[in-house]
Known about the structure:
The chain has helices at 23-31, 33-41, 52-67, 77-91, 100-120, 180-193, 217-236, 288-294, and strands at residues 10-11, 17-18, 20-22, 129-137, 143-153, 159-165, 197-204, 210-213. The chain contains eight helices and eight strands. Helix content is 31%, strand content 13%. Among the domains are: 52-120, no CATH class; 126-236, Lambda Exonuclease, Chain A, CATH 3.90.320.10. It is an alpha/beta fold. The radius of gyration is 22 Å and the shape is globular. Iron/sulfur cluster is lined by residues 32, 34-35, 242-244, 247-248, 251, 253-254, 330-331.
Amino acid sequence: MSAIPDLTSSSNATGQRTLKLSQSALGRYLVCPKQFFHADIERVPREEEPSPVLCQANAIHATLERFFGLPIEDRGTQTLERALRSVWAYHRRAGAFASKDDERRYGLEAIDLLNSFYEKFDTTTVPVAREQWVRTRLTNGSTVDGKVDRIDQALGGGLELVDYKTGRKQLDPDDVHREPAALVNLAATEATYGRDVERVRFLYLRTGDEVRWSPEREDVEEAHRRLEELVGSVASDPVFAATPGFHCRYCPFALPPAARTTPATTGARSASGHALPKPASGATSTPPTARRNSMRTRPPPSAGRTPRHGAATTSSSSPARQPDSRSSGCCSTARTRKRPGSCRSSPTYTTSGPTSTQT
Ligand code: SF4
């Protein structure tokens, strides 16, 4: 593995790295540290397939941002549709839609989602802020940025954070307090506004459901602690091990199946086609989705962490493992690719770095 460059532009008085992270970068780290490494540390420019779902989601967010800036008496389903039509061209991407009809279908579905939003949720609120960037500085000097879809005045005098969700996946109410977006936005909004956050709301446009969290002060302190731990574990991670799984399907650094090396041992196959390492005897593997949702701080590699492809490690408390033959597997040669599924011999990536997603 190549040497890991300095993550930051500075270090604090004790010589610790100080990071500047975004909410989406933290989410990437929880899904796969190696993807995070490529995207947020090496900042490898990459070209991602234009996604119709992402175009639609971004257009819906922009529509609601405009809509809640209108006087209450001007808000209606017609103004929602007009707002969508006015932002659509800005958020559509060349090649995202298979045809004009395909684009039309996504556009009409977006109108349906917005109409359903209008029916199911309160549209008379006057927000404190819309699409607002917020930032918190942690005790070691690192900063974490988030973006809140809408900030409302709460009944108790504090603030209420609203996150629009256009995807199908819905958060379990019991997991909200571990959701990275909730933790970052809660901590960063309180730091930015100097006011308490009374409630965090996730509004699901497809179902009309709402998942909400009303944190007590001790919950807020716990959220800060989790965030500090997570950022600390990112700063001290010397390996950024790959964690292959279903999410590799959407990874811009995944090699096409034909370019992956054949594993020397047989193991479970991931959705992307490369074999997963067999767990050590007696060890249990944790599904990536469970890892992402758990928001647990990962242990240091020397503390019995199961090595994964691309980064063989040993632990003093477990038997030594051999370097994984899949080290040239899904993504270790990613920097030689132009885009997923295309030419591996292209010397560089072709476009700019991480893109934000709103789904
Ligand atoms: S292809 Fe999979 S394992 Fe490799 S960096 Fe991407 S998400 Fe991680």
